[in-house]
């Protein structure tokens, strides 16, 4: 998986890293059980501070996408999450994206088609919770 960061973006680098790793897991580019680069290696590869990568990994761990072991490092371990809390978070995020699409002139059919196309490229390889 190739990480591409936009240093001119208003989105913080750690969020960009997090989002690209989650997308990589979702698309199957990063498999369950696969080890992520060490904090130092990813920082070097991406050209960012180690603290930025460490923050990214801690967020991914807290969200249940990876596990971190001192001896083995960070490993992809997405966990199934059907909680109401997660569903509410998802609903809020989709509401914002839907509002933006609507305000930019996109109709419902086109919006749903794009959602279906994106979701069709996902490979849900998760571990049971």
From TrEMBL:
Alphabetically ordered keywords of this record: DNA-binding, Transcription, Transcription regulation
Domain HTH gntR-type: 11-79
Short name of any one Pfam family annotated for the protein: GntR
UniProt keyword annotation of DNA-binding present: yes
Record has Transcription as a keyword: yes
SMART domains: HTH_GNTR
GO molecular function, one term: DNA-binding transcription factor activity
Protein's UniProt name: DNA-binding transcriptional regulator YhcF (GntR family)
Organism, as annotated: Hungatella effluvii
């Amino acid at each position: 998986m190739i990480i591409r960061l936009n240093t001119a973006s208003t989105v913080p680098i750690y969020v960009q890293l997090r989002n690209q790793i989650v997308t990589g897991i979702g698309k199957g580019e990063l498999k369950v059980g696969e080890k992520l680069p060490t904090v130092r290696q990813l920082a070097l590869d991406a050209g960012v501070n180690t603290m930025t990568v460490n923050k990214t990994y801690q967020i991914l761990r807290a969200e249940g996408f990876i596990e971190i072991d001192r001896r083995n490092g960070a490993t992809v371990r997405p966990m199934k999450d059907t909680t109401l809390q997660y569903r509410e978070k998802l609903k809020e995020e989709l509401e914002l994206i839907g509002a933006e699409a609507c305000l930019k002139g996109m109709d419902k059919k086109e919006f749903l088609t794009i959602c279906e196309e994106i979701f069709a490229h996902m490979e849900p390889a998760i571990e049971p919770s």
